[in-house]
Amino acid sequence: MKKSILFSAVLPLAGIVGFSLVNSTTTNLLEVRPDPWPINLQRIISKRDTSYALEFRDQQILTGVMLDTLPFANLEQLKYFEQGLSVLKMGNNGDVANYKDYSIKRTNVRKEPTWYLLRFQSGLTNFQQPEADKMIEAIKGL
Fold it and tell me: What is the pLDDT of residues 47-59, one digit of tens each?
């Protein structure tokens, strides 16, 4: 009898703990580029804090769709990403902004527009200057 009372008292608490761990909301702030090679800037609001992420399709995988997510723990880290894009915009071909977990390289394949290569872990995507400008403006507005 004591075991059933204890079990019935603990079970609701286990449900509350499980609910609070996954209680978050993800919102697309900006669709930088649509399918088939999407890049989306997202805001993730959890109970304790707000984080951000850049979701992109890995361009190394041509036979399937693999989405990678570059996480930013807070707005300050996202602003560092924006600063890297802004500095590279004024830079030269081959310039690289290196961060702890990812890098952005300016790669001028052709004269216009400028191209960028984003590497995160084993994921890779590229984007052009107009797409970089969209991200810069969206992040500055936060």
Answer: 889 999 999 998 7
